[in-house]
Design a protein that fits this description.
heterotrimer, A mainly alpha (about 350), B alpha/beta (about 375), C mainly alpha (about 290), A: about 350 residues, mainly alpha, ABC transporter involved in vitamin B12 uptake, BtuC, 15 helices, about 0% strand, globular, disordered N terminus, disordered C terminus, C: about 290 residues
Chain lengths: ~350, ~375, ~290
């Protein structure tokens, strides 16, 4: 079944585009329904996302993180696993970056990124191992691992052993000590938080695309995703491949955490709530599970997020971005809604698009 | 359809981008707690909307607040806070950590004369935006401005307000110790932050000062936004024999109050006067006057007296304290004792510890020296 | 003990919802979203009418309405069931926050909602319902003709169809019932336990309900037992952290993580490998289309 997760979007790319467009339309109507001016609202949304270097920088920051968590989910999908644990992997990645970033040396930035990737990979490989060795369903194990990460990091490490020393009675400093300047992601434009994170995320997306579509390893991963038994029978070590992909998935989520810490926070804050791990699922789904699609979807949702800051000038709560995101996924989920339209456009032939599998087992 | 929408939006964007704001506009950026947390964020909003602007916020937007309904909670009733006649404030919500900086920048771009950042989580954002916009003015609540190494510093256009929560909590602890009949008192914190430890340390010292035999059970929920966790821990504490519990746990604390209502026991509220949430169960609230800090900053801006720098508000400055004590719950001589302790704290005869390390070294002053009526002798 | 009976019901109802849907062959990752809709609608209904019982009804119906979307997408439009469930969760997250803001002008909590009455032990009727419903559900699923049909549809839909069972419509009813139960679970949170809706509800409870369902091997009694086990582990963790004065050791986070780690350990030690219903998550196409 997992190999068919992306059947809809893989075939007609425009179905994802249509879903996104429809979700914008629905949210346009939703604004109007609550008695606000939707045109002004969308004007603000656009201005907040694209209106100048400042907003563009915000879009880039959010997009970079969403692209990475989206890729994390998409990579796990290729071997047929559903990684709901990107959030926990992101937290460990962020913490590792914050710790490694404390040591002042010329290589502080790459070392911090590397530690984040390793930490994320370590947390990501766990559900993979549990799945292949002990048969624990990854949806369950990743949910549990998220909670374990949240409590261990926020309730213990950042509050205790790794907490900043602070200074005196009247001063309450939460979080870890700040990272050194050498570990900051460099910014390029004055008045904008656009930093190295965005080009890095695009580069990684390209790398993932290459890995998944142009290498033997990528082919084997997809084979395992299509059917572990068949893959095993044809000589692919399925269990090993699952763990590898989960490690990469975790590493990508860990890097997403590192971008937030090294790019904007510059320390591990006392309260760090992102939700980006879960958003990654939406990004991967709308992006059709391909690296390119995920990058485009991440860009779109990042822009909506950034724009929702300014949307508040029209009296609309920023949670609106989540609403748009949810509706888009809902519509992507149901390609058949668009099927009649598609047929009409193509003059009756529904090429490249087949109804999903019938009742046989996978 | 969407294309046309897009076109229209672009048009609007081009025309409406540089909107000039009326004079004295004040902006406020909330942290993730948001509007309706019944504590710190709502306190800051009360200072801005109710007190300074004379407005009431509803689901439809702002409405003018009729004078008859301009009532301030508890201990503010006796102090005059006339409306300042500012236009509708601009209030922004923050969904995540990295939203704070664009939110504050947006306030500055909208031409607000004062931008208020609610909560210590906003500190890095205030530092960055204030440095980038030296002519804009900021009020940062609950944290000093820090430099790149995490040490406190001062920016000329930022007023950073911190509160001596330990002093108010000390009084709350003293009152709890005087009121308890079971000799068991509870403390519920939210996340384990130095800020919340300050409440805990002060509270436990207050209990020790009055009644060293009373036991304080401490628990942290690990969040600020899961009310159910508060109910669970509250139930546990009351089930273990506590009859007074103090919470410093944001939204979780509302859950603790719920547990108190269900158990018919006493609870001490936090940040704002929470007596309206459970009038029969709230013994008092340890208030942090974010409202007053906001009101005074707005007033200073309007009178041209706003200056940057640190402001530490403790008992002496009226920045923290106990809201109206529920006379039906507290013992009759408690009020006199509280007054004496308050004086002693202000005079420096007693120091409320602010960290657990300081708490470990805390030695209660001799009750006789303070003239406490109710104090239980040690040993 | 008290704590378990008070805090397990939301999880019990939602986990039973998961069992109903998946035994009929439809994966339901949308439990979290259905609970969220249920919790919000229950609070809103109770506030508007003043009756917590009416609120409860609203909550259950809202859960069912959300489930109807899931059924429509996954059964009528053959969307992938996992994707559709995730989408539902995302919509719930955004839409409910948006509604909370536009109806009550708050992004934190709703106004106080009337809550269900409690007996002299401090329990609501739902606490007892959480004990009874799993047993009834078990009897229904294992010992009635209707229950047999549900199981057949979840294991061998094609065979069931040849025996004259209308697979898709039966699956749709089970998904609706699943939403009803999950909505009830959410309503238990808002009008049962808290008397209020808070913006993060149900804060992962729906996902934990999924874990309980798998833990309980897709059986009503097992899932309910697992839900009670989770609540017990949580209560135990709090007792433990009190007794060891963990606050001064600053180890609270470790204790908070303990119940989850324990669950993972139990699963990993494989109290028997779990097996989902054979046709769980497999879309069904009627013949001759």
């Amino acid at each position: 079944m997992r190999d068919k997760l992306f059947a809809p979007a893989r075939d007609p790319l425009w179905s994802a585009v249509a879903a996104v467009a429809c979700s914008l339309l629905v949210s346009f109507l939703a604004i109007a329904a609550t008695g606000r001016d939707p045109v002004a609202g969308f004007g603000n949304l656009l201005a907040g996302a694209l209106g100048g270097p400042g907003p563009l920088g915000e879009t880039a920051i959010k997009s970079a993180v969403l692209i990475l968590t989206g890729l994390s989910v998409a990579v796990a999908f290729t071997v047929g696993l559903f990684n709901i644990g990107a959030e926990g992997q992101l937290i460990w990645g962020g913490l590792a970056a914050a710790v490694a970033g404390r040591f002042d040396n010329p290589l502080a930035l790459p070392l911090s990124l590397l530690s984040a990737a390793l930490a994320g990979a370590a947390w990501g490989v766990l559900p993979g191992l549990l799945k292949v060795r002990r048969g624990v369903h990854e949806v369950i194990s990743t949910i549990l691992l998220n909670w374990i990460a949240i409590h261990l990091v926020h309730g213990w490490l950042v509050a205790g052993p790794l907490a900043a020393a602070g200074g005196g009675a009247s001063i309450s400093v939460a979080g870890t000590e700040p990272i050194v300047h050498a570990a900051w992601l460099p910014r390029f434009f004055p008045g904008s938080r656009f930093d190295l994170g965005f080009p890095l995320a695009l580069l990684i997306a390209a790398g993932v695309w290459f890995l998944l579509t142009r290498t033997r390893r990528g082919f084997e991963w997809r084979a395992v995703g299509a059917g572990p038994e068949a893959a095993q029978a044809s000589g692919i070590p399925a269990a090993r491949r699952v763990c590898e992909a989960m490690a990469l998935s975790g590493a990508l989520a860990g890097l997403a955490g590192a971008l937030l810490i090294l790019g904007t926070e510059h320390k591990y804050p006392g309260v760090f709530r992102t939700g980006y791990g879960f958003d990654g699922i939406a990004v991967a789904l709308v992006g059709g599970g391909s690296a390119a699609g995920t990058a485009v979807a991440g860009l779109f949702f990042g822009a909506v997020r950034a724009g929702s800051t300014r949307l508040q000038l029209s009296g609309i709560h920023p949670s609106f971005a989540e609403l748009i995101q949810g509706i888009a996924v809902l519509l992507v989920a149901a390609p058949r809604i668009f099927l009649p339209l598609w047929k009409k456009l193509r003059g009756g032939e529904a090429s490249g698009f087949r109804p999903q599998a019938s009742g046989e087992r996978r | 359809m969407t294309l046309r929408t897009l076109g229209i939006s672009l048009l609007v964007l081009l025309c409406g981008c540089k909107k000039t704001q009326a004079a004295h506009t004040v902006g406020l950026a909330l942290d993730v707690g948001g509007r309706g947390d019944q504590s710190f964020n709502d306190g800051a909003l009360r200072g801005l909307e109710t007190m300074a602007a004379g407005l009431r916020y509803t689901a439809r937007g702002y409405e003018p607040l009729p004078d008859a309904e301009y009532a301030l909670p508890g201990d503010l009733r006796d102090r005059p806070f006339p409306h300042l006649g500012i236009p509708q404030p601009l209030v922004l919500a923050g969904k995540a950590q990295e939203d704070y900086e664009p939110n504050l920048q947006l306030l500055v771009d909208q031409g607000t004369e004062l931008s208020i950042a609610v909560g210590f989580m906003m500190e890095p954002a205030v530092r960055a935006v204030a440095a980038r916009n030296p002519s804009a003015r900021f009020l940062l609540l609950d944290s000093p401005v820090l430099d790149g190494k995490g040490k406190p510093t001062v920016l000329p256009n930022v007023r950073a307000v911190v509160f001596r929560e330990n002093e108010g909590s000390f009084l709350a602890g003293a009152l709890a110790a005087e009121t308890t009949k079971t000799q068991k008192i509870g403390f519920v914190g939210g996340m384990q932050l130095p800020l919340i430890r300050k409440f805990e340390a002060g509270f436990r010292a207050g209990v020790m000062q009055v009644n060293p035999k009373a036991e304080v059970l401490v628990a942290y929920t690990g969040t600020f936004d899961d009310e159910k966790k508060g109910v669970e821990i509250g139930q546990d504490l009351y089930g273990r024999g506590c009859d007074v519990v103090f919470h410093a746990a944001g939204l979780d604390g509302l859950g603790v109050i719920k547990a108190a209502q269900q158990a018919g026991k006493m609870v001490i509220g936090v940040d704002s006067d929470q007596s309206h949430v459970a009038p029969r169960n709230i013994l008092t609230s340890m208030v942090k006057h974010a409202d007053v800090a906001v009101y005074l900053a707005v007033k200073d801006v309007m009178e041209g007296k706003f200056a940057g720098g640190d402001l530490v508000l403790g008992l002496r400055e009226g920045g923290v304290g106990l809201a109206q004590v529920n006379a039906a719950l507290a013992p009759p001589d408690a009020m006199a004792d509280l007054e004496k302790l308050r004086a002693a704290l202000i005079a420096g005869k007693v120091t409320a510890p602010a960290t657990l390390d300081e708490l470990a070294k805390f030695v209660p002053a001799a009750p006789a020296a303070l003239g406490l009526a109710h104090a239980v002798a040690a040993h | 003990m008290n704590a378990i009976l008070d805090f397990a019901p939301p999880l019990v109802f939602a986990a039973l919802g998961g069992v109903l849907s998946e035994r009929a062959g439809v994966v339901n990752i949308g439990l979290e979203g259905m609970m969220r809709f249920g919790a919000f609608a229950a609070a809103a209904g109770a506030i508007w009418t003043g009756s917590p019982w009416f609120g409860l009804l609203c909550g259950a119906l809202a859960g069912a309405a959300a489930a109807a979307v899931h059924a429509l997408l996954s059964l009528r439009f053959r969307a992938d069931q996992v994707v559709s469930g995730i989408a539902l969760n995302l919509v719930a997250l955004g839409l409910v926050t948006y509604l909370l803001q536009s109806l009550f002008g708050s992004s934190g909590v709703s106004p106080e909602a009337p809550s269900l009455p409690r007996d002299r032990y401090g329990h609501t009727a739902l606490a007892y319902a959480a004990l009874v419903v799993p047993v009834l559900f078990h009897l229904w699923l294992s010992h009635t003709a209707a229950g047999l049909r549900v199981r057949a549809v979840g294991e061998h839909p094609r065979a069931a169809a040849t025996l004259g069972v209308r697979v898709l419509s039966l699956r749709a009813w089970c998904v609706l019932g699943s939403g009803l139960l999950a909505g009830l679970g959410g309503a238990t949170l808002s009008v049962g336990i808290l008397g209020q809706f808070d913006s993060r509800m149900p804060a992962g409870q729906g996902f934990m309900a999924l874990a309980a369902m798998v833990f309980g091997k897709w059986t009503p009694l097992g899932a309910a037992g697992a839900a009670f086990f989770f609540a017990a582990a949580d209560a135990l963790q709090r007792q433990l952290s009190f007794s060891l004065h963990a606050a001064d050791l600053r180890l609270e986070g470790v204790f908070l993580a303990l119940p989850y780690a324990l669950t993972l350990l139990v699963l990993a030690l494989g109290i028997g490998r779990t097996r989902a219903p054979a046709a769980d998550g497999v879309p069904y196409e009627p013949e001759g289309r």
